[in-house]
Amino acid sequence: MPGTYAEELKFAESLAHAAGEVLRDAFGKVSAREKGPSDLVTEADTASQRLIASMIAERYPEHTLLAEEDNVVPDPSRPWKWIVDPLDGTINFAHGFPFWCVSIGLEHAGKMVVGVVFDPLTNTCYSASLGGGATRNGQPIRVSNVSALRSSLISAGLPTQFKKDAERQLGLFRAFSTETHSVRRTGSTALNLGLLAAGGFDVYYTTSVHPWDVAAGLLLVTEAGGTICAIDGMPYSIDQPTLLATNGHLHGEAVMRARQGLGKG
Length: 265
What we know:
Layout: H1 6-26, E1 32-36, E2 39-42, H2 43-59, E3 64-67, E4 80-88, H3 90-95, E5 101-108, E6 111-119, E7 124-129, E8 133-136, E9 139-140, E10 153-157, H4 166-177, E11 182-184, H5 189-197, E12 203-206, H6 211-223, E13 227-229, E14 243-246, H7 251-261
Parallel strand pairs: 3-4, 10-11, 10-12
Antiparallel strand pairs: 1-2, 4-5, 5-6, 6-7, 7-8, 8-9, 12-14, 13-14
């Protein structure tokens, strides 16, 4: 793939494949524990992250790391920051449901410059670098050409703690389930964004994500021609919990539908 960050992208892909091998070997063999209500972690999560962290420290000792497990806190003085979800879709993984992945993002001076999402079970690797486009297993990908919500397939990221936010969630689900092909809840934000970048989904929305859930997928979507914003249509920041990602062609309509679901339109 062309682009300024080819070396870092190749390394990110190697990280994702190495961690994916650990996860694939552990799938169906490990039990989960709760970090909090309905918030699971497995030995595979921590093993995957520690492998990724050790490989980054060896290759790029001047870089810093933000990751989901082990309370990893990045050094804000360092311009290169890896943002890692060692196992996105832990609940799926823990229950033996085959929809989970490794997500590896690299930020430089506040910009996402590399993103890799790897599905070890299907050996599918979504990759992107800033200005270099997006690929799936080395082949260029683009978002879909669907131009109207009535012809769209939508994915939703719903919170595990659904009860405390049920009214908002049901409003959004109702809005996006009306006059569309369907709404799916898959349990892996990173894979949802990879699929959107490749044209499988036309819209993805969520109100409860962390930077490690979305870092790699954001770049995949934008490099594949898609559009990103907050759930209410405002500019997006990686540190906020809401996200609306679309193929761009129906973005305005999707924002209007989301605002209706939120009771703002």
